[in-house]
Amino acid sequence: MKTILKAKNVTKTYGKKGTAAYTAISDLSFSMNEGEFIGIMGPSGSGKTTLLNMVATLDPLTDGEITIDGISVSSMNENQLSDFRSQKLGFIFQDFNLLENMTVFENIALPLALQNKKLDKIQASVHQVASLLGISDITEKYPAELSGGQKQRTAIARALIHEPTLLLADEPTGALDSKNAATLLDTLADLNKERKVSILMVTHDPRSASYCSRLLFIKDGKLDHELFSAGTREEFHQEILAVLGDLDRRPVAGVRS
Amino acid sequence: MILKLALNGLKKKQRDYAILFTGLIISIAVFYMFLTLSLNKEFILQNSVINNIQLVFLVGTVMLSVITFFYLFYTNSFLLSLRKKEYGLYELIGAKKIQIRRVFQIETMAITGISLIIGLILGIILSRVVSWLLMNQLNIEFTQFKAVYLPAVFWTMIYFLVTSFITSSIHNLWLTKISIIELLRSEVQNDLLPEKPKNAALMIFLGLFLLAIGYVALYFMEILRFIGLFTAPIATTLGTYVLFVALLPIIVRKWKRNKRVNFKGINSFTSGQLNFRLSSLKWVLATIALLIALSAGAIAGGFAFKNDAFTSIDEHWQYDATLYNPGAAEMAVLDSIPVEEQLTFRMKLNDEFIYLVQEELNASPPLIRDMVTYEVVRPDPLPEKLDIEDGNQIVSDQWFTALYAINPALEGTRSTRIVPLEEYELAEGEEISILLARTSDFSAHIEEWQKLDELQLNVYPDLVSGFDPEIDSVATKYAQFKTQYAIASGTFFMGFFLGLAFLTMMASILMFKILSGANNDIRRYDSLRKLGVRRRLLENSIYREILIVFLFPGLLGLLHVFIGMRMFTFIMDEPYYRLWVSILIFLAIYSGYYFFTVYLYRKIVLPKH
Questions:
Q1: Which of B282, B286, B423, B561 lies at a CB distance of 3.0 to 4.6 Å from B419, suitable for a disulfide?
Q2: Taking every annotated instance into account, which residue ranges of this chain make up the domain ABC3 transporter permease C-terminal (chain B) (predicted)?
């Protein structure tokens, strides 16, 4: 199994020189294999989004190293990082981050257009990914005309069209109702199983987390617990709830060796 | 407490407030600059060739006031958009509507007050600098013009305070109606989707048709006269609006339809931005196009008037200097310039007659402008015998003109007798020589003509009995030019001021409209950055987008000027003279605003490096 993401002793401290520094992530390491669906869980302020942003190359590391597809992201300059994001990564955000001034088609096509792909190729890919996500009939609409679920599926289509190495999702169900959330997670799970898309998802919702194949629990900037899905989703859900309950009961962060 | 809240509001969001203040200060400075001129009746009346110049300034003041009113309305709604969310929060924690309205009113008035102080200072500096530059350029002193003009200070303050009060009151009315939840959510508002244009083809046709009518009326103003004077502004204005409203969305749509271009790099985003922007700005853009035309036209008109002082003087005076009994001093001056033609005539003068030598006149007939054909010609030779009727010699019309050209100071003061040389020798009277000199370019040697005029002042008392150099003057080309030029310079000065004020105001409105929407765009640029778009590409997209927004009104405005200047043919010779200078001024100001807008916009939407 190929390792696509490797985080080694990652540390992130905020605060300017001379002020009290705040450590969001401290000495955290984990790795991710191709085709995995990893969830990052933890209470608010635990550092999950900080971790995701560092993997997404949006936030520089204070210390340590992150390697994606064999490339170390900490050594790249701004332009290289931009190119890296546009080629290797796909993003799904809680608030969709669709560009409201562009149609669904244009939104989905953007990553390929940025790579200056041929028009025929762009059109074929957009149609393919749009039908995969069931949004073929709304491609000429603007985001303002869509429902939340449709927006998020458009966002997924945009995140997938350039076949990224890694799909990053930050609370993707946060703005959706439970029915739409379930559909979305089914879609993500399908993509992971059938198309071997590697997904790294940040969530605080146990129900969403139960779709993952592996879960990382973060508390106070450190990796607190790791959980693998073995049985059915419902069993996994119960396990997650148990771990979360346990996490809450310990007032001081436990330290894993 | 309320005051503290209000001032706290100012401290936050410094960048947005900087934009707000810049916009207000510019408009105050421009308004003041304009008033220093339009309120100064003495200056206007003494320096104009246009009879109804006061009406022009009255209309200008009304127009500027109306534009400024809308501008202040925009700035005030921009302020409100900055504060909405916070007002919602205050309301949420129990502040009463009346308190919030008071906060908003205090904020508005405080901002206007501060801007007034800075704006007036800037306005005074600008008026001084511009007037100083112009006076230096024109070599003229306008003593009546005052850069620090108290009536202008007073009325600027009154206007801005009252208007701020009105606009904030209108917004307060809106605040009373709106619910807390709308205030709180106001930041996540979407732009309105651009409507699909209806009957676009028909509208474009109508727009072009109206413009064509307007242009024809402008072009043939000389023939159409009053019909043209009414048709031109109405048809051109309507045409501009209709065309912008119909054409702009269509252009972007067509653009987007070219998929090969649209799906290349970040183009789809740029065109998407334009699609929204052009359809929300189309009314503003059309207004700007018209006012650009007016202001560039005013500057160009001023230049043309100034030039007219030179060209029209050449129409009436073929010879640049007419010298009586020129001495060594006069000859020295003449020797210093390239004289193309120099004619000398003799005349004898007594109480009753002026005698001229027929042979001399026939040998070198001077150039004149024929009053019938309007061409520059030399008169045909005089007949041998000239009839005398009622004591006056009868000469052809051309020679009649020529005699005045030869002897502008004395012709007409007594009866002229053109006689053969022998007869002339016998005639009694004082002999005077007259020298006519012509160069290829009168305007190139103004200083020399002035010097010659001064030298001649010593000769005139001998020629004309009772001539007092202090009071009297003799008609010379230079003297007439000087009077014409002084008036034309005044007109130029006013046209320049008027045009500059409107142009600055226009560009500033456009800048403000673009920047006030920039906050909504922050999210978009952030998304693109996250998706991996290079900063360079984002910057390019901004440059192109804003360029196109600036381009449309600029282009149509210039076209209006090109055609519209022809209208002046019925009061001057070369209305297009040095049009490029005013176009250059327009381009300098306009592109200055363009780059400033891009700079500020980039600062808002792109994070620091």
A1: B423
A2: 61-169
- Please report residues of A whose CB lies closer than 8 A to that of B269: 99, 101-102, 106, 110
Give the residue-averaged pLDDT of B73-80: 86
Question: Chain A partners of B531 at a C-beta cutoff of 8 Å?
Answer: 85-86, 91, 110-111, 114, 158
Q: Do A142 and B523 touch (CB under 8 A)?
A: no
Which pLDDT score is estimated for B120?
A: 96
Strand B415-419 with B353-357, pairing = parallel
CB-based contact A113 B264, cutoff 8 Å: yes
> How close B535 gets to chain A, by Cα (Å)?
8
- Burial-class residue B43 by CB neighbours within 10 Å (0-12, 13-18, 19+): buried
Q: What is the mean pLDDT of residues B417-446?
A: 89
Indicate left, alpha or beta for B297 from its phi (over 0: left) and psi (-120 to 50: alpha).
alpha
**Chain A partners within 8 Å of B193 (Cβ):** 142, 144-145
Phi-psi region of A64 (alpha: psi -120 to 50; beta: other; left: phi over 0): left
Q: Which of B155, B182, B200 is nearest to B35 (CA)?
A: B155
ipTM: 0.85
Share of chain B above pLDDT 90, in %: 16
Q: Is residue A71 less than 8 Å (CB to CB) from chain B? A: no
Among B89, B103, B79, B101, smallest CA distance to B180 is for B89
Instruction: Enter the tokens of residue B579.
Output: 């049009």
Q: Which residue of B has its CA nearest to A119?
A: B260
- Distance from the Cα of B309 to chain A's closest Cα (Å) equals 55
Average predicted confidence (pLDDT) for chain A: 86
Residues in A closer than 8 angstroms to B529, CB to CB, are 82
**Interface contacts A/B by beta carbons within 8 Å:** 92
CB distance from A30 to chain B under 8 Å?
no
Distances (CA, A) of B159 to B20, B104, B139, B377: 18, 19, 35, 59
| Residue pLDDT, tens place only, B28-72 | 998 998 888 888 877 777 766 555 667 777 777 888 888 888 888
The token pair that represents B26 in the structure block: 């510019």
Which chain A residue shows the shortest CA-CA distance from B529?
Answer: A82
Alpha carbons A223 and A25: distance in angstroms, whole number: 9
Separation in Å, CA A245 to CA A90, A206, A238, A242, B483: 32, 11, 11, 5, 97
- Nearest CB partner across the interface for A100, out of B191, B532, B536: B191
Give the span between the Cα atoms of B286 and B280, in whole angstroms.
Answer: 12
In CATH terms, A3-94+168-249 corresponds, of 2.70.70.10, 3.40.50.300, 3.80.10.10, 3.40.50.150, to 3.40.50.300
Question: In the predicted model, is pLDDT for residue B479 greater than 90?
Answer: no
Distance of CA A151 to the CA centre of its chain: 17
pLDDT in tens, A59-115: 888 889 999 888 888 888 888 888 888 888 998 888 888 888 889 999 999 999 888
Q: What angle do CA B157, B105, B15 make, to 5 degrees?
A: 85
- CB contacts, 8 Å: A109 with chain B: 263, 268
Question: pLDDT band at B2, cuts 50/70/90?
Answer: low
- From chain B, pick out residues whose CB is under 8 angstroms from the CB of A111: 531-532
> Alpha carbon B580 to chain centroid distance?
12
Nearest-by-Cβ selection for B263 from A97, A109, A144: A109
One-letter amino acid identity for B249?
A: P
The residue that leads in pLDDT, B592 or B189, is B592
Task: List, in sequence order, the alpha helices (H) in chain A.
Answer: 48-55, 78-88, 104-114, 119-132, 148-160, 178-194, 206-209, 233-249
B517, containing H or E segment: none
